[in-house]
Design goal:
By secondary structure, the chain is α+β, with helices and mostly antiparallel strands. Helix content is 33%, strand content 17%. The protein has two domains: 34 residues, no CATH class; 227 residues, no CATH class.
Length: 284
């Protein structure tokens, strides 16, 4: 973009300010990255080609509901799964595709140094998008498909309350005191759109892998399905799934096959059925 000089009055009249957890704009100047740019992937050619191969060959078209959920469990809960809570796992999985020295934080959508591990109230830590207080498995507590790099303060604000739509509530701030695009009230945490899709598919994975109820993490089936469908799988999601697979040796089926969500939970209500049909996904 060419630099140009503008009269002070023009700047005052025409400057616009847009705020999010990681981006703001004043007139012709932009700082940080827009939320949609922080999804990773997208245009730099670094998204790995998913190595799915014959991974889902045992799944047939006539599988729905618990039959499909149990079949996915048999695939992803294999003897070769290797979980780890080591920092390097998350530095690798959540690496910023535009800066290999940084990670993208799950809810704040900011890019920070990999080395900025939490110290006191500052830095990033490891967020269980399905709260560890609601998981009984020690393996689940170290599962990289469930855990993401997260701003320490935003992580604390989420706590273990359910994911849900918040129309009022309060704006969540990051550890630098900047407003994010996340909101919460006493019962629900509502992340930005990119994270909405991620946490929906992570919750589905937890259900398939460990048998947890999605309603332990979401306010309703309707919100789960809507967030999944309205916030589609991104390049970053695909790349992360592939990275975790190389280390952990299992995959998140709902990243590879978004249509499985509707085949399992699409008949929970008239709203979930309608949402899946609008997306042209089959329901039982």
């Amino acid at each position: 973009m060419k630099s140009r000089k503008l009269p002070l009055l023009s700047l005052l009249v025409f400057s616009t300010v847009a705020l999010s957890g990681c981006y703001f704009k004043i007139g012709p100047w932009e700082f940080g990255h827009k939320e949609e740019e922080q999804q990773g992937g997208g245009g730099n050619g670094n998204t790995p080609t998913p190595q799915i191969g014959t991974y889902y060959d045992s799944i047939t078209e006539n599988m729905f509901g618990d039959t499909l959920l149990n079949a996915l469990h048999s695939i992803i809960d294999n003897d070769g799964v290797v979980v780890s809570y080591d920092w390097s796992r998350f530095e690798y999985a959540d690496e910023d595709p535009n800066n290999s020295k940084n990670v993208i934080l799950i809810y704040a959508r900011t890019s920070v140094a990999k080395t900025a591990h939490v110290s006191g109230s500052k830095g990033w830590n490891r967020e269980h998008t399905f709260p560890d207080s609601k998981m009984s498995s020690s393996q689940a507590d170290k599962d990289n498909h469930i855990i993401y790099a997260s701003d320490n303060k935003v992580n604390g604000a989420r706590g273990n309350i359910k994911m849900g739509v918040v129309t009022g509530g309060s704006v969540v701030q990051d550890y630098n005191g900047n407003a994010t695009t996340c909101r919460k009230d006493s019962q629900h945490f509502d992340p930005n759109n990119l994270s909405r899709g991620i946490v929906a598919r992570t919750t589905m994975y937890a259900a398939a892998m460990y048998g947890y109820s999605v309603l332990d993490n979401f306010e309703s089936y309707e919100t789960l399905i809507n967030w999944h469908l309205e916030n589609a799988v991104t390049d970053f999601d695909i790349a992360r799934n592939e990275k975790v697979y190389t280390k952990q040796k299992n995959r998140n089926p709902f990243v590879d096959h978004p249509e499985y969500a509707c085949k399992i939970w699409g008949t929970k209500s008239a709203e979930t059925r309608s949402a899946c049909q609008r997306a042209n996904y089959a329901v039982e």
